[in-house]
UniProtKB/TrEMBL annotation:
It comes from the Bacteria. GO terms for molecular function: metallopeptidase activity. It comes from Luteimonas flava. It is an enzyme of class 3 (hydrolase). It is a multi-pass membrane protein. This is M48 family metalloprotease. InterPro entries: HtpX_protease, Peptidase_M48. Keywords: Cell membrane, Hydrolase, Membrane, Metal-binding, Metalloprotease, Protease, Transmembrane, Transmembrane helix, Zinc. The chain crosses the membrane at residues 29-61. CDD domains: M48_Ste24p_like.
Amino acid sequence: MMSESDRRARVARLEAFAQRAPTAYRVQLALLAGLGFGVLGGAVVLALGLSVGLVVVLLAISPILLAKLAKVVWIPVAFGWVVLRALWVRFEAPSGHLLAPGEAPALVAEVERLRRAAKAPKLSGILIDDELNAAAASVPRALGLLGHRHYLVLGLPLMQLLDRQQFASVVAHEFGHFGGGHGRFSGWIHRVRVSWYRVLDGLAGRGAWASGLFERFFRWYAPYFDAYSFVLARQNEYQADAMAARLVGADVAGSALVRVNIGAARLEHEFWPSVVEANRREGEPPRGLQRDMAAALRSRHADDDARIAKRLTARADVHDTHPSLAQRLQALGVAAGDAAPPERSAAEALLGDLLPVLEADFSDDWRLRVEDGWRERHRAHALDSDRLGELEGQLERTPAEAVEHAALVERLHPHVDAVPLYLDAVRRAPDDAFAHYRLGVLLLARDNRAGIDLLHRARMLDPDAGDAVNEVLAEFHHRHDELDALDSVVGDQQARDRLRRDAAQARNALSVHDTLLPHGLDDAALDAARASLASTGKVGRAWIVRKHIDGDPAGPPHFLVLVKWRGLVFGEDAALQRMVDALQLPGSWVAFTAPNQRRVARRVRKCAGAPSYRHGQA
């Protein structure tokens, strides 16, 4: 895949091209998207044509030969069906509280006023959800052939954060997406990307013979298409900001951007940490979450100015379709002034009697979603507190207890510096992967590069920690703009992902080249498998072997189960599925019958020896 430096250079080049020749840029993007759909559509036609051709040829040779090779004919048909399903991308309407007729008339009137001013299409509905965000959603009918349904999604926290004018700026911004045709064209571009990923997932899951060819094309195609479509998304944001400035004024649009950044920082650094702290104290989640959130968003904080100053210096990432705050303010031609909390929020001004209803409903929904996990974490916190008390009451701790103590202090007392504790834990437990990992994470958070070696050591001690280690290293190298090191980490992670994908595909495939081993089941596991096979009443004999999975030696064991039916079985596929559902084995497994895989069946019998199960055996 494309390196980070190459991606940045390509995006910069395309942004300059799009500004210099916007029409040519959009034509090229449309052609590139058309190429993607053309390859997918051509694959469907080719697959179906190949099937028809095979039928004609085999029928001309011998109808009996056609009957014998019927499954061969269906292979390209199945391939074409996977691709065809991927092309039909279904987009659901957004979720949230859909305003009913007569609800929040002031809000509806304000939205309609802005819609007309922006010359945006009519809405199919206005939804309110519990996010600090707003969105313009266009849902295509029949891939857009029958038009689109347009929805405006408004976050209640956003309405509580902003005053009425700032909120109008956000709505105007979203209508800028609608009015500029972004929803339709960008939606088509998005469907191309989604279709490709669905094709690759479908083919990989089936082990399709053409998946490698498609993947090679996609590796070439995806970097170009992503870079081209990324530039479009960035342009859309600037144009939507310009719409907001035209309808409500650039100063108001700028103050809304600053307020949204303040609100996001407030939730991240104060509100949600306070909820986590409440979880430690209280056994039940709070009832008025939305009310408490609104109070937090509308208050002042001593760190607000410093946080905005930090965000003004942050650069836009080439993976984030939204420009940076500084870039957006510069495009508007305004400075980041003082964005004080509103005396009266847009929610209070526009929602009327619906406001307390939404606050209560969203709070209740949140409680239902989190209450089980909340209680479990509260119980775990109490146990952790007791255990920490025990450890701190001991005069001496073992190396394992030193690691446990450091972890408990870090988890229960986040304001305490845990680095000295982990340093001691690493010294006393030099082979503990967790201690090395956590110390590495904490040091890199302080920009102490000694954490890099600690993370590599953690991965060496525990190869399963590779994903977590790569995530931390990628964030660190990205933050410091170290592109070569970042590319190395990303490449390693992609290799790990490929091994996992290949291992998952190997678990779903049967081949005469598979490496087969004795099942290795202990008596209890073998008895459980035999009992589950007997419960179906249809299995006469079964042979169980273990399959070696390349690239996943530490993963769960994988078994092949060869089944011979007892008597006649009508609907073999259904019977085999019932047997698979009933079977109990400590890992994953694939079951099959000899007529479907004769060569594999011979190898399984040879490896297993005597049947692992016989009907009627004790």
